[in-house]
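Hello, quick one for you while I still have it in my head. A protein chain has come my way and I'm curious about its shape. I'm sending you its amino acid sequence along with the backbone structure tokens. I'd be grateful if you could look everything over and explain what you see. Here's the protein in full, and shout if anything looks odd to you:
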Amino acid sequence: MVFFLELARRTTLSPQNMIYETAPFRDASTFRALGTPLSITSAGATPTVSRFALYDNPAQPVSRWVRWRTVSQDTGVSWNITFRITMMAYAR
């Protein structure tokens, strides 16, 4: 599974993280992070690529449901980001 993150706009200077999560069920309590959080820095022409594959022996294998979550490290600041995620799933 490959995620392409294209960041178009960011209106805050506080650090933000993108977290990709997976779960065997749709219930929110079952979701676990696929890897380490990805730091969102600045908009650019090149997408950020994150790859998660079973043959890499990940700590959390990819399950049926996948979602993304953004987290700001500065809780008192309002922030705004515009982005596009393209996901490519394949079998080996």
Summary: The chain has a mean pLDDT of 81.
